[in-house]
């Protein structure tokens, strides 16, 4: 035992180019580029063999010693660790197979069907070329960085999503016992030491919002409108809801008698049912929309029979009016009208902030407050939305 454990954690951390023996055949190899890898040298059947045990920081000194000890035990019983590992690898799936399996298992828990195609497309574009054919137990930090580094600065948001998706897939692989629990794609305490923070690279970009003072004039261009997308956009403004909620609205969610629109939890970002009080102008838009009502059940019908408006319909409408990113009349987009409403409520109205936040269906961040909040302030929100409509229709 005296010949074992010659290295220390500090020596490993500060080692420069060269080879460093820990004893018992375990060696640390530092390449000119600074990569550090563990190698175990042993003799079996009079043949000298050398087996890689992984790289730092994925395989620490303690883990390298543990792996080396297990391999030496195999040699003592006449088993070749390299051959044993090769045999085992035949049963280890590659990253692509694990990823597709993970997507298939979790797809029913995702609230938006588009998530499936988004996961597949980003992985096929960025991760599979480098990791797809690799056994999941062989993927280390350098492999993950090979995927992320080329896009980390130019496509930061996409890169961060890919990092999280790789992390989830490798965690899944660990749970299936295909690899150890160390996750080379983990951000906290790991990749955050190796890559600059996304928040320092790319500032958060909020949806460009039209100043609330300009919204009434903008609405006059939409009402009265023979355009279904124009009516949908006006309805979005009067209700301060999200584009996807308006485009997905169905007649069975609308109660004209009670002047209420109930958006089911499956279509809400918060995953909670949301009741929207309808002002008289919003109800009038619904009366107009009912003329084109068809079997699809969508409030705002699309050009194809049985379909609602496309996801781009409202954006394209605004572009046609001269609004949008880098457009001459302003870089405003449909989702920005929620901010217009929020600014109006904060600067002009006297309604409490919690009523406004509830109208926007924002999640209560304070867990204690959320635990005690039982109602949805519906009647107070009805007064708020009526005041908003009155401001818009001046």
Give a written overview of the molecule:
This protein has 394 residues and is of the alpha+beta class. It is built from 17 helices and seven strands. It has helices spanning 9-14, 61-76, 81-89, 95-106, 114-131, 141-152, 156-175, 198-201, 215-220, 228-239, 243-247, 280-289, 313-320, 337-347, 353-359, 367-372, 378-392, and strands at 18-23, 26-30, 36-44, 47-55, 254-255, 260-263, 274-277. It has a four-stranded antiparallel beta sheet, with helices on one face. Helix 4 packs across helix 7 and helix 5 crosses helix 7. The termini are far apart. Residues 367-372 have low confidence and may be disordered.
Low-pLDDT stretches are 367-372
Determine the N-to-C terminus distance. 88 Å
Tell me the number of helical segments per DSSP (H or I, 4 or more residues long).
17
Task: Quickly give the structural class.
Answer: alpha+beta
Main-sheet strand order equals 1-2-3-4
Which percent range describes the beta-strand content?
A: 5-15%
Largest sheet: 4 strands, antiparallel
Mean pLDDT: 87
Shape: elongated
Order of helices and strands: HEEEEHHHHHHHHHHEEEHHHHHH
Helix content: 40-55%
- β-strand number: 7
**Radius of gyration, CA atoms, in whole angstroms:** 29 Å
């Amino acid at each position: 035992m005296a010949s074992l454990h010659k290295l220390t954690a500090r020596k490993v951390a500060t080692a420069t180019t060269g080879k460093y023996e820990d004893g018992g055949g375990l060696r640390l190899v530092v390449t000119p580029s600074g990569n550090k890898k563990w190698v175990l040298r042993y003799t079996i059947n009079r043949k000298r063999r050398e087996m890689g045990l992984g790289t730092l920081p994925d395989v620490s000194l303690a883990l390298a010693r543990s792996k080396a000890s297990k391999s030496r035990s195999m040699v003592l019983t006449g088993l070749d660790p390299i051959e044993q590992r090769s045999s085992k690898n035949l049963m280890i799936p590659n990253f692509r197979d694990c990823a597709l399996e993970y997507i298939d298992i979790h797809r029913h828990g995702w609230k938006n069907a588009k998530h499936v195609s988004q996961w597949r497309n980003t992985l096929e574009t960025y991760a599979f070329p480098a990791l797809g054919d690799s056994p999941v137990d062989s993927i280390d930090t350098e492999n993950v960085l090979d995927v992320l580094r080329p896009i980390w600065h130019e496509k930061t948001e996409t890169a961060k999503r890919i990092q999280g998706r790789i992390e989830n897939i490798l965690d899944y692989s660990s749970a299936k016992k295909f690899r150890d629990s160390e996750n080379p794609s983990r951000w906290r305490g790991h990749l955050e030491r190796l890559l600059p923070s996304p928040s320092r690279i790319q500032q958060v970009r909020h949806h460009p919002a039209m100043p609330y003072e300009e919204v009434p004039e903008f609405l006059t261009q939409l009402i009265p409108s023979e355009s279904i997308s124009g009516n949908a956009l006006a309805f979005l403004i009067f209700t301060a809801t999200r584009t996807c909620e308006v485009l997905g609205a169905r007649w069975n969610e609308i109660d004209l008698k009670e002047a209420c629109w109930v958006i089911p939890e499956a279509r809400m970002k918060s995953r909670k049912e949301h009741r929207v009080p309808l002002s008289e102008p919003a109800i009038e838009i619904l009366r107009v929309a009912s003329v084109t009502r068809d079997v699809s059940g969508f409030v705002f019908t699309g050009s194809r029979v049985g379909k609602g408006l496309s996801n781009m319909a409202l954006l394209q409408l605004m572009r046609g009016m001269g609004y949008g990113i880098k457009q001459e009349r302003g870089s405003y987009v449909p989702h920005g009208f929620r901010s217009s409403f929020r600014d109006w409520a904060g600067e002009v109205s006297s309604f409490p902030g919690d009523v406004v936040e509830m109208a926007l269906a924002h999640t209560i961040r304070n867990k204690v407050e959320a635990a005690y909040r039982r109602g949805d302030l519906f009647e107070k929100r009805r007064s708020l939305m009526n005041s908003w409509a009155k401001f818009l229709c001046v």
